[in-house]
Amino acid sequence: MTVTPASKKSGTARTKRRGLTIPRVFSTAGTHPYDEVEWERRDVVQTNWRTGETVFEQKGVEFPSTWSVNATTIVTTKYFRGALGTEAREQSLKQVIDRVVRTYTAAGKENGYFATDADAQVFSDELTWLLLHQVFAFNSPVWFNVGTESPQQVSACFILSVDDTMDSILNWYREEGLIFKGGSGAGLNLSRIRSSKELLSSGGNASGPVSFMRGADASAGTIKSGGATRRAAKMVVLDVDHPDIEEFVETKAREEDKIRALRAAGFDMDLGGRDITSVQYQNANNSVRVSDEFMRAVEAGGTFGLKARQDGRVIETVDAKDLFRKIAKAAWECADPGLQYDDTINDWHTSPESGRITASNPCSEYLHLDNSSCNLASLNLMKFLRDDDTFDVERFVAAVELVITAMDISICFADFPTEAIAETTRAYRQLGIGYANLGALLMATGHGYDSDGGRSLAASITSLMTASAYRRSAELAAALGAYDGYARNAAGHQRVMRKHAAANDDLRTVNTMDAAIHAAASREWQAGNTLGTEHGWRNAQASLLAPTGTIGFMMDCDTTGIEPDFSLVKFKKLVGGGSMQIVNNTVPRALRRFGYTEETIEAIVEHIAEHGHVVDAPGLRPEHYEVFDTAMGVRSIAPMGHVNMMAAVQPFLSGAISKTVNLPESATVEDIEQVYLEGWKLGLKALAVYRDNCKVGQPLSTGKSAQGTADAGAAAASSAQASSGAPAVAPQPATDGPPRAARKRLPKQRPSVTTSFMVGGAEGYLTAGSYPDDGLGEIFLRLGKQGSTLAGVMDAFSIAISIGLQHGVPLEIFVQKFTNLRFEPAGMTDDPDVRMAQSIMDYVFRRLALDHLPFETRSEMGIFTTAERARYAETGSYAPAEDDLADLNELMDEDGADGSGTPSPTAGAAGAAATAAPSSAGTTPAEPAPAPTPPARPHSSAELLELQQGQRADAPLCMSCGIKMRPSGSCYVCEGCGSTSGCS
């Protein structure tokens, strides 16, 4: 059902006002924004690499050449409308932007937003320019629905209401289903429902809210929202004084125990597995709404009363600290529940006379009245960083003005899933402007995420954004009228505006960059509050920080929402297929800001490419390490670093922040208690935590951890089947061990290359012999004098490696194992492609990788030639041009290389003699056995981090393309296809 009542054009069209004059800031008069960029055609093919299945294919789509392959894929697969293979299918980004911008512009003209038709044209040009250049993006429902024949649902976030009646409860199920179907998420508070400890009018006991959660969870699990862009997303909230609070707190933790038991018994309990549907409460985020009274009782070690829903009498008294411990323990076990701080939320409520804020959307960033919605949009902060590392305040303010105007226009034409939501949204016109790429901006400007300077800059930008948004809202009110609910809530709204301005006054800046932004924010707050006091505001809410998962990748952002950088090395898709790893472009920019020489920058970037972190990077001063701290891996940001960043920006947001505070697997229940307590003290509105590896109901990436889990599960299953009656797992055939590999001998004459080298003053020779048509087959190392112990060890090592190669062990396995080994001699080399080596072995296998492995394989390991590193410094890409790459592949084919061989081996007597020892061992030739399976190559930044640093990125696998996802706000996002685990 879609509600489109006659009163849809609330307040905007019923009185003719003067409209707005739209300044031209970004676009060029007389030139269409499309004519300013270079366009190209691309083929988009999306496969699930684990199954080999092609899940999407559309050829010849048109995008600007500056858009990444990843952004192209995400927009094509998620936002192009029309059936594949038909003329109705969109083929170009121009069509997507046009259908959205034309709808917004037409609605703005119809509802009196523009002073003249010329202003409407400027609005259209400016909006097109911003979207085309990835300066901002609307939330996903806009791209799904606007300008199509579907209902024009523009909101990503909904808050529902449920009362203590069966009709209301069943209506809750229905309304959630409609919202999920439209590609959005919903949240609600169940605290009005009587507890299981209270009586019904008939005399029997009530079921309680937890029992009704089962039905809603099952309903959500059957609905794929947003046309397969993400699963159903929902939030369930219960007040801490509800008598069923302990049952609510423990629901998901108990289900995690069930998942472990069923997995051990051989059932498929992975996310999306056929047996996971038997587990309940998995489709919602759970949060406890805590009051200041409760938190003070926790601090004091006092008691707290649980109250009946109908008359408010205390029916049970509990130990507050004990209940708080149970909340933290459940979160330690399964990441739920999170906390929402009720008194803080309502102290910042702009519409208190219309009712309390009781719930949130699924990711806890939208907080307002029941039966309301909020449409979101996010700015790409890196687009406002000038080449001289100053922040373009004027263009940022202009972008906020335009985006807020467009978002408010959308309420005029938007459709809503229920009449109640339609009425509330049109009466309060809640908006949610936010940003992405904060982590990248901080790094690029030399600010540590967990530093006073980083927090000051983030707070200043957030204050400027919200101040500019509310100032524009006041201008819209002057031109078109305040929101309908403003008159009733004028005093409350003005009080909150003064609180924002006072928080801005209390903000202490650290350097000139944030001081300039803060000064602009102060001017905006003063101007906006003066205008708002006279005319009111057009919008009850203006800002929040969403996870920006899919739209963050659409804008080619390195970081999502308020998050720090996930890792310093990213996995990048290449035009025409293939992929490579790259070090974030913000890293060399930050190093230049600190004054490092280009040679030192190159060495540091190479170190990061190899290791994934900056520890012990050559020439990098330890005091600069914090700038390159990340969410995962070595030098990951401490939990309180995340909490403190949230606290820095929270006073400058109408809503809250979608963010999960990650804790290491070793964290204790007490650590989670401390995070939750500090979040309350620091004035956060909502907070969620995640302890690494606490959840088991998700697929693991391939690797040792996954294999270990599988082995453990198989062992547990064998012991459990006899007593459980579970389906038997098919027994494995008995064998005496894995099949024995057969050796493939080298011919008597074979091409070889001898390389002289020097590492840390030690001289040596490396000879590599190849099969004429099948890659590297032997090596020989000579160090020290003939007959010495070192020479003998090197001879033995050479024979071992050579026999391994001849028995099918891929060279890349040896490269992974022997690079980065540290021992003397080490240091400078005389090889221009490998300037520093941590040992002889480190050098030898880097040299072999450069000579015998293809570019794509080497790039995944961070091994590059001097020419490739120079290319990166000039173009931001290690990869050669497509034509050069094609020529290189052709050359390798002509030379008989198959991807593991040398492009142009040369024969020599010295080489043949040197390699005689390794090739002379063995017995009669045999049919070669299948080669050992090489280690799984990474397909995402999360998998790359696991490979480089040996640390598990605890995240689910994408159900569309099979790669490991990465955290984004309170959920996960796939950087391969843009799918999310629940947030827009």
Automatic annotation (TrEMBL):
Q: Where is the Ribonucleotide reductase large subunit C-terminal domain?
A: 155-690
Residues of the TSCPD domain = 747-850
| Compositional bias per record (Pro residues), positions renumbered to this chain | 927-937
Coiled coil, from the record: none
The UniProt regions of compositional bias labelled Polar residues, in chain numbering, are: 1-13
Pfam families membership: Ribonuc_red_2_N (PF08471), Ribonuc_red_lgC (PF02867), TSCPD (PF12637)
Here the segments flagged for biased composition (Low complexity) are: 721-734, 900-926
EC numbers: 1.17.4.1
Matching InterPro entries, A to Z?
RdRp_reductase_class-2 (IPR050862), RNR_2_N (IPR013678), RNR_lg_C (IPR000788), RNR_NrdJ/NrdZ (IPR013344), TSCPD_dom (IPR024434)
Q: Which GO terms describe its molecular function?
A: cobalamin binding; cobalt ion binding; nucleotide binding; ribonucleoside-diphosphate reductase activity, thioredoxin disulfide as acceptor
Membrane-crossing segments per the record: none
Q: Which portions of the sequence form the region Disordered?
A: 1-20, 721-753, 892-942
Which GO terms of type biological process are on file?
Answer: DNA biosynthetic process
Keyword match Nucleus: no
Its keywords, alphabetically, are: Cobalamin, Cobalt, Disulfide bond, DNA synthesis, Nucleotide-binding, Oxidoreductase
Say yes or no: keyword Disulfide bond present.
Answer: yes
The reaction(s) catalysed by this protein are: a 2'-deoxyribonucleoside 5'-diphosphate + [thioredoxin]-disulfide + H2O = a ribonucleoside 5'-diphosphate + [thioredoxin]-dithiol
> Which top class of enzyme applies to this chain?
oxidoreductase
The cofactor(s) it depends on are:
adenosylcob(III)alamin
Ribonucleotide reductase class II vitamin B12-dependent N-terminal domain boundaries: 44-134
Q: What does this protein do?
A: Catalyzes the reduction of ribonucleotides to deoxyribonucleotides. May function to provide a pool of deoxyribonucleotide precursors for DNA repair during oxygen limitation and/or for immediate growth after restoration of oxygen.
Listed PANTHER family:
RIBONUCLEOSIDE-DIPHOSPHATE REDUCTASE, VITAMIN B12-DEPENDENT RIBONUCLEOTIDE REDUCTASE
Similarity annotation: Belongs to the ribonucleoside diphosphate reductase class-2 family.
Indicate what this protein is called per its UniProt record.
Answer: Vitamin B12-dependent ribonucleotide reductase
Q: Which organism is it from?
A: Georgenia soli
